Amino acid sequence: MTYEHNTQGLDKIMPESNSPAPRYMGATWPVGMDVYTQKGEILGAIKEVMLDMEHASVAYAVLATGGILGIGEKLHAVPWRALTLQLETLDRRFILDIEKERLESAPGFDKDNWPDMIDESWISQTNTYYGTQHYESRRDD
Q: Which residues neighbour 86 within 8 Å (Cβ) at sequence distance 6 or greater?
């Protein structure tokens, strides 16, 4: 395996295989990346990656939409499982399989009023909205 480091935070450990995907990546890398629809429309940018330290899992990407220079933007906690990292093209990007209009009407929050991300009803509503299953429900603990 090889380890690559660059100044953009794209630290990665590459397996000795032909896979275009790195085995591990630095957590700072997705912050600031744009997220696109399947049609190539920009939905917004990743502002934060929320880690579940108790379950050692990536829980959500906080996606910022709208606003200008951070003013008036709406934040969305998108389940990490709802995102697909597309590495096959020169333009590496995250894809969220949702129509732009649906994301605009999605439950969101502002930077000063974050939801209680451990509340069971919030977790259920969020995963239902994005059509995902919560990562804890797939564990064999």
A: 92, 93, 94, 95
